[in-house]
Protein: TraB/GumN family protein
Amino acid sequence: MKPEIMLLGTFHMAVEPEMIHKHSDELSSITASLQEWNPTKIGVEKSFFLEEEINKRLKQFLQGEQAPAYDEVEQIAFPLAEALQQDRLYPVDEMVDMSTPSLDQVFSWAEEHQPELLKEILTIQQSVKQMEDKQTLAGYFRYINDEDYKKQLKRVYMKLTRVGDRQHQIGVHWLKQWHHRDLAMAANILRTAAPGDRILVLVGSDHLHLVERFLKESGDVTIQDVTPYLPEKKNV
Structure:
């Protein structure tokens, strides 16, 4: 039986701790909903260099010795592992140098040489931001895992390919680094998967569409849509 993979697009909670504090009661309902899929393994967007440290902190959490930090792994994966009686998480991220060029350099080039293209990119990004529903965690998670969100991100990345010229493919070079990271994540997930596994993987929402695509194209796993396993948005 092919392994099943369910990808959960997340946001970096350390950047928005006030949101987690405000909606902390919703985290338990998100965990409970994900638990219904009954994953056999939980993958997380962390480097394998941190595997020992992550699982050490998980053990401390399971023993009641460690409160979860404002981090998506500790806020979601730790309680889920506890509910599933699992004592190990599987890091799937890759350390990639994203500085040659950096995204700032890509945008600086566009600002100087291709202002109209930059305007197009920023317009899409602003549209995505305006559509984000941060009134509830359930609403936010549903949005960043929605097909329309992925579609808009694809448009941004394809517009980034046009930044530069035939002699200076600056946007393409940045995206090569990004694809390297997402390809490596997909490869690490596939290495983790054994026949009959049901693996839930937490990944940053910006990586979601590429990692999902690479996994599908492998033909070695079945992708499970996460949406039915997210709680419904509550009215506020």
